[in-house]
Design goal:
739 residues, Rossmann fold, 14% strand, globular, binds adenosine-5'-triphosphate, binds magnesium ion
Length: 739
């Protein structure tokens, strides 16, 4: 066996894929089988064994974080930094191309990126200007119409309305939206891809240049490429190129955003002589976790078919916890984290995964009060918080005065006497002159605006100009710091009431730290630091958040978790209607996508997997009672172990079954699931109630206590009601009356 660091840590099948001849390659393999590892080693191998220049490699990853990790890994394998290698997401790479070739792409030099929220705000404004009713022309739907067409590579001119007046209006709005973006020098996410595709398609010399340069194009998570990304890949690889793509049809989870899992098969048709490699050994998860995931995904139809096995240990059972409500669920997870940490484990080993972002809040509250550091990836993103967006808007305006969205956001923030009416005047003037709000402001100063508004506006313009002059040449974090001081944003929030203002000030201060810690990665390295930072804020919100160095629990949606792995995983909110999502329950394809998402979630776990659900949940302010997720029922029963003894309570404890659970539970902790301990505690800690006692409940009537657990406000009681059957209730709220 060779001791080559590139090939040695691979199994036979992986090695074959890494050393494949220069032809189109598709690696089709299940979760945790080493696809990402193979892709990374392939790059190192191309450079070392094939003599490829790092300059000729273009690698597409799923997140910017993954790109960073891949770069480090390659450096490690080669022993030297891989220099000019391009690694990034589709969006990141497209952005980089557009920055380089803004002129050919028909953009302004300092174009800014519009995130999804900015985009929606812009659409709302457009609807208002068109005097269209938002309840009929729902901004979200207009946004979806625009983005999904861009994802398919279609401009307004490519769309036909036929006899459909609604569609005709949508197409018109799409056109107006494009004009506005053009005028403002802004580009949305979908536009990055489409624009860079058109750039290469329409500039043969440029295409030729990049085709010659990027002789090696590699794509991870290929199952989630959409139409425009795939078209882009085909374009840059060329008909006789040899792209190298890896993916897993069972992990395709972005159909709703235009991803086409069919690209896996299409690839083999489009690239003649494509070689198919399969990897079958999973290195990530225990046998039990793998069997659970395999059992679940077997319920899907139309799969491409793969084998996945592990030589690893069987490991512990998959644990199932039925919580009373969402707080109890969070409490349970908190307790398990504490136990893990008390035994010397790291918090970063633990991931809490959920279907929808809104679920994070209850966990966040529980972790905050338990003083458990945590980190939310995506969702409640740092860069998306209002005060941060305000600050970024100032920075964006410094870079590009024509950025109308930023102008509007901050022209009267902190309040300086420029009201809605003055702003309307500016908008009108901008429209008439066909220019930006900034330009219109210059025009309106003497004429059009009242003396007070004029003075205020003059003050604002002066402020921006002074600030721009003042920060030029400063280090990035000093620029941010100066901006916060000069604009008065910090002062403004400091005067706000209590906690809220304080948190905002903290966030703003955090922005200075973020700037201090920022170094432009490969994709943005050629930009001036401030512009690189703004691009980073727009593209990577959520990733690389503050406090990355701290040992903290990881929280993220299932979608965000793709490609990652953690020793301990909690899949929370396993309830029908939440996961699978209500929207998808009645639609077979949608349900299968949800199941793949669950498969992705389960296969993130290396050692321990927990499934938790709540019998009652308050989400978005509404209480609902739901059934456990069908995905729990689809998981082979023999692999599952319920943590709460539930119906076994009246039977003697089976000595072995919960033995390891007892080791987990802290002495006297609320979750010691041993029945015997529960009974003892129950009797002593919930005064007035005993097992077997008869009680009356306001709604459910009379019944007999079957079980008592926990203490204090956490105490719970299981009652067998004569008419309503068995229910778990929280003592604090149940108002039980002893009989
Ligand atoms: P996913 O489908 O989730 O993206 P993947 O197929 O990309 O997974 P990797 O993330 O590359 O899988 O690998 C999964 C884990 O197995 C990683 O921790 C990786 O380091 C490890 N691994 C992969 N191949 C080997 C091997 N030959 N020997 C030891 N460990 C391996
Ligand atoms: Mg992977």
């Amino acid at each position: 066996m060779t001791l080559d660091p590139i090939l040695e840590p691979l199994n036979e099948a992986q090695r074959a894929a890494v050393t494949a001849p220069l032809a189109p390659v598709l690696v089709l393999a299940g979760a945790g089988s080493g696809k990402t590892r193979v892709l990374t080693h392939r790059i190192a191998w191309l450079i070392q064994a094939e003599g490829a220049s790092p300059h000729s490699v273009l690698a597409v990853t799923f997140t910017n974080k993954a790109a960073g990790e891949m770069r480090t890994r390659i450096e490690h394998l080669l022993g030297v930094p891989p220099g000019q290698l391009w690694i990034g997401t589709f969006h990141g790479i497209a952005h980089r191309l557009l920055r380089r070739h803004w002129r050919e792409a028909g953009l302004s030099e300092s174009f800014q990126i519009l995130d999804s929220e900015d985009q929606q705000r812009l659409i709302k404004k457009l609807l208002k200007a068109q005097q269209l009713d938002e309840s009929r022309w729902v901004p979200r739907e207009v946004q979806w119409f625009i983005n999904s067409n861009k994802d398919e590579g279609r401009r307004p001119k490519d769309l036909k309305a036929g006899n459909d007046p609604v569609r005709a209006q949508m197409i018109r709005l799409y056109g107006l939206y494009e004009e506005t973006c053009e005028r403002n020098g802004v580009v949305d996410f979908a536009e990055l891809l489409l624009r860079s595709f058109e750039l290469l398609r329409d500039q043969p010399a440029l295409l030729q240049h990049y085709r010659q340069r990027f002789r090696h194009v590699l794509v991870d998570e290929f199952q989630d490429t959409n139409a425009i990304q795939y078209a882009w890949l085909r374009l840059i690889a060329g008909a006789d190129g040899h792209p190298y793509v890896v993916g897993d049809d069972d992990q395709s989870v972005y159909r709703w955003r235009g991803a086409r899992v069919e690209n896996l098969q299409q690839f083999q048709r489009d690239f003649a002589g494509a070689k198919l490699y399969r990897l079958e050994q999973n290195y990530r998860s225990t046998g039990t976790i793998l069997a659970a995931a395999n059992g679940l995904i077997a319920n899907n139809s139309g799969r491409l078919g793969k084998t996945l096995w592990t030589s690893g240990e069987r490991g512990e059972p998959v644990r199932l916890y039925a919580a009373f409500n969402e707080r109890d669920e969070a409490e349970f997870v908190t307790q398990r984290i504490r136990d893990h940490v008390a035994r010397g484990g790291m918090r970063r080993d633990i991931a809490i995964l959920y279907r929808s972002n809104a679920q994070s809040r209850v966990f966040e509250e529980a972790f905050l009060s338990a003083r458990i550091p945590y980190r939310v990836y995506g969702g409640l993103r740092f860069f998306e918080r209002a005060e941060i967006k305000d600050a970024l808007a100032y920075l964006r305006l410094l870079v590009n005065r024509r950025d109308d969205a930023s102008f509007e956001r901050i022209v009267n923030l902190p309040t300086r006497g420029i009201g809605a009416k003055s702003l309307d005047t500016l908008r009108e003037a901008a429209k008439t002159a066909g220019g930006s709000l900034w330009e219109a402001a210059g025009l309106c100063l003497g004429a059009g605006l009242g003396a007070k508004a004029s003075a205020a506006l003059q003050g604002f313009i002066g402020l921006i100009e002074r600030l721009a002059a003042e920060v030029a040449g400063l280090a990035l974090h000093e620029q941010v710091d100066r901006m916060l001081a000069v604009t008065g944003l910090i002062e403004f929030h400091r005067r706000e009431k209590a906690d809220r203002g304080e948190a905002r000030v903290e966030n703003l201060e955090e922005l200075v730290s973020a700037a201090r810690g920022f170094s432009a990665d490969g994709a943005n390295a050629d930009l001036p630091p401030l512009e690189a930072f703004l691009a980073h804020a727009a593209l990577e919100s959520g990733e690389g958040q503050a406090d990355a160095w701290e040992d903290c629990v990881q929280m993220m949606t299932l979608h965000t978790a793709k490609g990652l792995e953690f020793p301990i995983v909690f899949l929370s909110g396993m309830e029908d209607g939440l996961f699978p999502h209500q929207r998808s329950i009645t639609d077979l394809e949608g349900l299968e996508e949800e199941r793949r998402l669950c498969y992705v979630g389960m296969t993130r776990a290396m050692k321990q997997l927990y499934l938790t659900y709540a019998e009652q949940r308050r989400l978005h302010g509404i209480d609902s009672y739901s059934q456990p997720s069908r995905f729990i029922k689809e998981t082979p029963e023999e692999l599952l172990e319920e943590i709460r003894p539930r119906l076994q309570v009246m039977r003697p404890v089976a000595a072995g079954r919960f033995a390891h659970e007892r080791a987990f539970a802290r002495p006297g902790g609320a979750y010691a699931p041993s029945f015997a301990a529960g009974r003892l505690r129950g009797e002593s800690e919930v005064p007035g109630f005993r097992l077997g006692a008869r009680v009356r409940h306001g709604k459910f009537g009379e019944g007999v206590i079957l079980s008592l657990e926990g203490s204090g406000p956490q105490a719970r009681v299981q009652v067998n009601f004569e008419r309503q059957g068995t229910k778990w209730l929280v003592m604090q709220y149940a108002n039980l009356e002893p009989l």
